[in-house]
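Backbone geometry:

***
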Amino acid sequence: MPIDPKLAGEGADWIAEMLSAELESFVPSELCDIVMDAEQKVRDETGDQRMSHDEMAKRLMATFEADPEIPTQEGAVSEYLVREILHWEDEFRVLAGAPRDVRR
């Protein structure tokens, strides 16, 4: 289920901060925005609101690799990073009172 755009923006900032600390490397909130937006589009297009993070990360990476604006070369955006953003998004949604249910 989509969340309010303003809340999603706050979420992207929070996710980027948490993930940057976890990975000890800078993760831009814009990347989190891109992942969250693309994720919702995939969920809407497929009708699968409960798609697992593993499947979602694979689908998003296929899309991102076709986009010259998204750096997917080694050491940049990866399937692992996308999955981590999705997991942190789960945490944010719980804190924001808008939890979601995905297959594990």
